[in-house]
Amino acid sequence: MEPKVSIIMGSTSDLKVMSEAAKFFDEMEIPFEINALSAHRTPGKVMEFAANAHKRGVKVIIAGAGGAAHLPGVIAALTPLPVIGVPIKSSNSIDGWDSILSILQMPSGIPVATVALDGAKNAAILATQIMATGDAGLQEKVIAFKADLAKKIEAANKELSEVKFKFKVN
C-alpha cells in the first residue's frame, strides 16, 4: 500500500501535535507515512523527499514545524503537490507567532495552506477534502464526517436545554 499523504515534522518533538493528523487518517482509512525531516539539519533529504513525493503516489503533504518553521515553505518550493503547513508552538517559539507567520507569509508562487497553531487535525481534514475532489468514496467519508459534526452540536444543544438558570428562557 502506497501512502496518499505524507506527514512531515521538523523533529519528533512535534509528534504529539502531528499525531492528531495520523489519528484522523486512521479513522478515514487513508494510507499515510510519517517522518521527521529538518529544513536546517537535513536539507538534502528534504530536497530529495519534496522532489520525489509525487512520483511515489503521495497526493498531499502536511508539514509541521515550530520556531522559524521553514520546513513547509521549503517543501512547497520543491514539490508540485499541495502543502499544508501546521505551525507548532515549540520550546523555542515566540508564543507560536513566529511559526504561524513563517508558514503563512509565503512569497507569490509558493503557496502553503496554513492551519491554526497546533492544528494538525484540521490539516488532515483539509488534505482529505483535497483528495476527495477526485475520489467519490472519500467524498462520502467527508460528507459523513461533516454530518457527525452537526450531530454533535445538535446533541450539545439538547444537553444545554436541560441546564437550568433563573433567567434562562430556552
Question: Could you write a compact summary of the structure shown?
Answer:
The protein has 170 residues and is of the alpha/beta class. It has helices at residues 15-28, 43-52, 71-78, 97-104, 120-132, 136-162; strands spanning 5-9, 32-36, 60-66, 83-88, 113-114.
What report would you give on this structure?
By secondary structure, this protein is α/β, with parallel strands linked by helices. It has six helices and five strands, in the order E-H-E-H-E-H-E-H-E-H-H. It has a five-stranded parallel sheet with strand order 2-1-3-4-5, sandwiched between helices. Helix 1 packs parallel to helix 5, helix 2 (43-52) packs across helix 3 and helix 5 crosses helix 6.
Task: List its traits.
globular, 170 residues
Provide a count of the helices.
6
Alpha-carbon distance between the two ends: 52 Å
Low-confidence stretches: none
Number of strands: 5
Q: Whole-number average pLDDT? A: 95
Any chance you could write out the topology, listing elements then pairs?
Layout: E1 5-9, H1 15-28, E2 32-36, H2 43-52, E3 60-66, H3 71-78, E4 83-88, H4 97-104, E5 113-114, H5 120-132, H6 136-162
Parallel strand pairs: 1-2, 1-3, 3-4, 4-5
Helix pairs in contact: 1-5, 2-3, 5-6
